[in-house]
Design a protein that fits this description.
Blueprint: E1 5-7, E2 17-24, H1 28-34, H2 38-44, E3 62-63, E4 72-78, E5 83-90, E6 96-99, H3 106-109, E7 123-132, E8 137-149, E9 152-164, E10 176-179, H4 193-199, E11 207-211, E12 220-224, E13 232-240, E14 243-244, E15 247-251, E16 253-256, E17 259-262, E18 267-271, E19 278-280, H5 282-291, E20 295-297, E21 300-303, E22 314-318, E23 321-325, H6 327-330, E24 331-334, E25 338-341, E26 343-345, E27 351-353, H7 355-358, E28 361-366, E29 371-377
Length: about 375
């Protein structure tokens, strides 16, 4: 399989790192902007980044959101012989699901669909699965099959097969989602893929790590069972989790030009590869955007593209360390809508450190220690 590669230290094959390359494709927003449909889409499917972290959906059904800016996906396969799918590796959810041949929604018609009848290792479970999005939902049922991720064959993995999907999914490049959060979050009690990797001894260490390239379409990668020193420099800051449901940590404060603009006295944040922006309470996000010179416009915070080099850093103070984002990291440029920041409005108190943050900081997710490790990305 051309999308899989394995890195091994010269000293021993046991030091192999199992890696899945991630493609950085066009986002749903970019595709809609090209077609002149973004404003219509934005109003019809308003972005609710906190939907997936709503406690009402934390157990029993999986909650997701319609993030139009997600751009990273990797390839896995399901079944024997393998059927390939593009999935978002999402640390903010716990279930694996892909479209099935029994789905006739518009969103399924332009994505690859799993055919259980063509897999000799498929077993039906039959239990229903519902994933509640910010707007609309995905419904389907559960089955078992061999799921291959980065060359690792996870046998009898439970996963969802969609029968209906929310309309906005038709604009996303990825076919489905592979959740990497804790099993307590998993809908229908389905064991997450990484838990089965650990249980079956397929990984050397009970951790995985994520590197997201900032500018290139290539180079991003999820590494299972280890840490790749080629993707970071300096020391790793290990941060204990404040909750073992999502990858949740405590942020001490957020500063601009040395002044605290958010999280005074501390706040809770989730490190989430399945959210594109940095999201926080509206007042806090407004303070950050005001501090960097951005103004609100149609739900976005926009800046003059000519001012990026002069804009201040935004620093997250976490576990006694400073994690700084320069303007080049937090400003996104569109040929249709100019420049806007990567700080978005969210819920009442919880923050999300999404791809804008993870592109700057190589992120390690340790189930063995229940910690998140952060180091400066190369």
């Amino acid at each position: 399989m051309k999308w899989v590669f394995v890195m091994c230290a010269m000293v021993a094959l046991s030091e192999c790192l199992i890696q899945v390359p991630l493609e950085k494709g066009k986002t749903a927003r970019e595709l809609l902007e090209e077609q002149g449909l973004w404003e219509e889409y934005r109003l019809k499917y308003p972005y609710n980044p906190m939907a997936k972290f709503d406690e009402r959906f934390a157990v029993g059904s999986e909650s997701m959101t319609n993030d139009a800016d997600l751009s990273y996906y990797g390839i896995i396969s399901i079944g024997t012989p393998p059927q390939s799918f593009k999935v978002i590796f999402d640390t903010g959810s716990s279930n694996l699901w892909v479209p099935s041949i029994y789905c006739n929604s518009a969103a399924c018609n332009n994505h690859d669909k799993f055919n259980p009848g063509k897999s000799s290792t498929y077993r039906n479970n039959g239990s229903p699965l519902t994933i509640q999005y910010g707007t609309g939902s995905m419904t389907g049922y559960l089955g078992y099959d061999t799921v291959t991720v980065g060359g690792l064959a996870v046998k009898n993995q439970i996963f969802g097969l969609s029968q209906t999907e929310a309309p906005f999914m038709q604009y996303m490049r990825a076919d489905g989602i592979l959740g990497l959060a804790y099993p307590r979050l998993s809908a229908s009690g389905a064991t997450p893929v990484f838990d089965n990797m650990m249980n079956e001894g397929l990984v050397n260490q009970d951790l995985f790590s994520v590197y997201l390239s900032a500018n290139s379409q290539q180079g991003s990668v999820v590494t299972f069972g280890g840490v790749d020193p080629n993707h970071y420099y300096g020391s790793i800051t290990w941060i204990p989790l404040s909750s073992e449901l999502y990858w949740q940590i405590t942020v001490d404060s957020v500063t601009v030009n040395g002044q605290v603009v958010a999280c005074s006295g501390g706040c809770q944040a989730i490190v989430d590869t399945g959210t594109s922006l940095i999201v926080g309470p509206q007042n806090s996000i407004s303070n950050i955007n005001s501090g960097v010179g951005a103004s609100g416009q149609n739900g976005d915070y926009v800046v003059n593209c000519n001012n990026i080099a002069q804009m201040p850093d935004v620093t997250f103070h976490i576990h006694g360390q400073e994690f700084t984002l320069p303007a080049s990291a937090y400003v996104r440029q569109s040929q249709y809508y100019g420049c806007r920041t990567g700080f978005g409005n969210g819920g009442d108190s919880l923050w999300i450190l999404g791809d804008v943050f993870i592109r700057q900081y190589y992120s390690i997710f340790s189930r063995a220690q229940n910690m998140v490790g952060l180091a400066r990305s190369r």
